[in-house]
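User: Can you predict the 3D structure for this chain?
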Amino acid sequence: MSPRPSPSDARQSGDEWLLDLHVLVCGEADLVLCDQVLRHFEQITGRQAVLAVSEESFAAVAAKRALTLAGQGSRR
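Assistant: Here is the predicted structure, written as structure tokens:
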């Protein structure tokens, strides 16, 4: 079983997330808040936040970015 991606794995500055009829744009200064909003949206609505550029779910993006970060860490 792979470890659950950390909150910081899923969002990056400039990401645009689709939340039903709303769009959340993550800024440099509020990445933690952005993560909280995305997780809260999914928890309350039961719907998935979707990355606008790729149409991937929040969970899929988190997992993909966690693997990328893990690979970068092993190269150091």
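Residues 1-5 have pLDDT under 50 and may be disordered. The first strand starts at residue 16 and ends at 19.
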